[in-house]
Amino acid sequence: MGRIVAALFLGAALLALLPEAGAAETWTRTRLGNGLDVIVAEDHATPFARIDLVFRAGGLSQQAATAGHFHVLEHLLLEAGGPSSIAAGVGALVPLSWNGETSPESLIFRMKVHAADTAAGIGLWARIPMKEGFTQADVAAAKSVVAAEAGDQLADPAKLYEAAMTKQLFPKYPWRRDPTGSPASVAAADAESLLRLKNAWLVPGNATLVVVGDVDAAAVLATAKTAFASWPAAASPWKTPLPPQPKLGAGRPTWFFLPDPSVPEGLALAEIRYRGPDLATDATSSLAADLWTYLLGVPEGRFGKAMAKALPFLHAPDTLRVTHVSQRDGALLSIYAALDIEKPGLLLSRVRAFKETFRGNEILAMRTDPGYFSAAELDAARACLLADRKAALESVDGRAAEIDFALTSADADWYLDLDTKVAALGLKDVVAVVDNWILRNLEVVALRLNPADYDRESRFLVDGGFDALKPLSAFWWQGR
User: Fold this and answer.
1) Whole-model pTM?
2) How far is CA 133 from CA 87, 93, 203, 237, in A?
3) How confident is the model at residue 26 (pLDDT cuts 50, 70, 90)?
4) Hey, what domains does the chain have and what are their CATH numbers?
5) How many CA atoms lie within 13 A of 469 on its CB side?
6) Do 70 and 103 touch, CB atoms closer than 8 A?
7) 87-107 confidence digits (pLDDT tens)
8) What is the SS3 string spanning 328-352?
């Protein structure tokens, strides 16, 4: 869905052992004559290479009527064509891993190979944009796969939960957050419309070939020039920025609950979620929101102590978690906790106390008390954030994922000098996030309960203002 930054509950001794962030990330970036960008990050500590073909497409570039079409297109491009399909080519190459993914902000084809097979892998991905048409039989097969995924969502508590959150927090353009689409929109896709979609969005000016691993940048570039030589030049279809999702997410404070068999009996998984600052419109606040999660992550800090003292019914201190999902268009801020239910009827007051302690007490104190966070805590949070990113870059897969994220959710260079950007952030930037995106926003409060607890608590929760989430009204396309 996007990069998730979560508060880490680290002790002071562990903080002292964190490694330094190290040098800024580097890579080579070249634009071919047809407009295709090629990014190469050499890493000779591994005998592997990761090859990704990245498009800024997917949920962001669909409309309500075409929601799910990029996902259908993904399956077509990988599986259609029988013996000449990408899937058949993969069978001959035998990569270590390969897949396609349609997300709210990207359409990415990924492959990991032994370094000696890098050229073959690039050649295989170069077949993707060369598809000139689809048979109705292939379209029907791809649509059936996506339709089955859409149908499965109705029986999946986690998917219902996220769909309800999307419907509440992104009511103006919810389809941008839904790459699976609706049954009606998927059914409307046909061979002609899917080919038009491919020709409009899967073009060199909207694509980047990312190669990371034990490779030579010059050799990769030469291979890419040859492999993609017949791809006709075409500029990016992104002529003007998208109208942003409204800053105010929920139109009113919203509370809902649903049964989830994966939750142990006797516990309630509670979340308070807000719209967050998007990278496309407020990149500094997005990075400050990352830093904020780390500031809240040390249990001996003021926040952790206050929450534990006010909420003795937390199942355990380490079940308290603050997250920021960083996105180009659809960022989220959340706090999660596991609450002990104990006897029926207590849960409602405990959820209210959880919300009031977080927003009414601690968030308000962060905004009004300049000493809420100390300079030492700020330095520790910066060190944690940068150390986690450094750790992510130490694997071929992690480094490729970092570049992919930067390409589709920010820009290719945003994370090249992250150390400097993080060092420039002050407490005023963190307080601005708290003020603008929590205190001046409206939240969604949600509970997931074991079905047995759901049955016992439903009456109390409904009487207290909670809505019981129903599968027939969870998704944005239901009841529109």
Assistant:
1) 0.91
2) 17, 24, 15, 20
3) confident
4) 3-13+244-473 (3.30.830.10), 26-227 (3.30.830.10)
5) 32
6) no
7) 888 988 999 999 999 999 999
8) CCCCEEEEEEEEECCCCCCHHHHHH
